[in-house]
Write a structure and sequence with these properties.
This protein is an all-alpha fold and 251 residues long. The protein has 10 helices and no strands. The C terminus is likely disordered.
């Protein structure tokens, strides 16, 4: 009998330790439910004291079970809201993919969110450069796109602060014409094949002699000569970690 009693006590102690660890894990994962859990455990302790039981400074099995039961409703709501947010994020980042039905598969997709955000940043840069070029070509069809493959050296040094501010405000206004819901792939990478992306990531500005303008550019205003190459830098020249704002931007 004594041996059996010891086995039962050891088993109960182990269960209390395991449930305690689970309860602590839930408290760490969902701190919003902690207040309700502690209140439930307190009510359980008060009820036992009212029944004449001797109080203990430690949580018993019943205290942990009461706390975990109190966590169910808020955790269920938080879990539902969390999944809704995850599904919305998936639809925003992978617009052409089918939403996974199982949570475990959804989590696997979400593990790639940082890389996917970088992809969208590059897509936004490509879309902005493409729209800027379309503005230029709508007024000056003679502009050579081949000339805009590189940027003139020292162009930022010769451009006044006023023109830089106006350029940024105009660039922000141009973004109103861009469809931000469409992912823009880089046709250069599709043509060049695998392995070229790493080389483009290390690209630097190419110095073009000031005395060697492209054919047909001579008739353009001076500011546009500086502006057009600046607008259509290769995406690899841009810093996608910088937030660009101006008075012309919508925040």
């Amino acid at each position: 009998m004594a041996a059996q009693s010891k086995v039962l006590l050891d088993t109960a102690k182990r269960w209390v330790e395991e449930i305690s660890a689970l309860d602590r894990g839930l408290a760490a994962a969902f701190p919003e439910a902690q207040e309700a859990a502690l209140a439930a455990a307190g009510r359980e302790r008060d009820a036992r004291r009212a029944a004449g039981e001797v109080g203990s400074p430690f949580f018993s099995m019943d205290h942990h079970l009461a706390a975990m039961h109190a966590r169910i409703t808020p955790i269920t709501m938080l879990g539902y809201e969390l999944r809704q947010a995850a599904e919305e994020l998936f639809r925003l980042l992978w617009t052409t993919e089918t939403l996974p039905g199982e949570v475990i598969n959804l989590v696997k997709w979400l593990e790639n969110v940082p890389d996917r955000l970088l992809d969208w940043k590059e897509s936004a840069a490509r879309a902005g450069a493409d729209m800027a070029l379309s503005f230029v070509l709508s007024w000056y069809e003679e502009v050579s796109l081949d000339q805009l493959e590189s940027r003139r050296a020292g162009v930022e040094d010769t451009l006044s602060a006023e023109n830089k501010t106006r350029r940024l405000a105009r660039a922000c206004a141009i973004t109103d014409y861009i469809n931000h819901n469409i992912f823009v792939n880089d046709p250069n990478l599709l043509e060049e094949g695998p392995g070229e992306e790493e080389e483009m990531a290390d690209a630097e500005e190419t110095a073009v002699p000031e005395a060697d303008p492209a054919s047909g550019l001579g008739a353009l205003p001076t500011v546009l000569l500086q502006l057009a190459p600046r607008l259509y830098l290769p995406v690899s020249f841009a810093c996608h970690k910088t937030m660009v704002k101006s008075p012309g931007c919508r925040v």
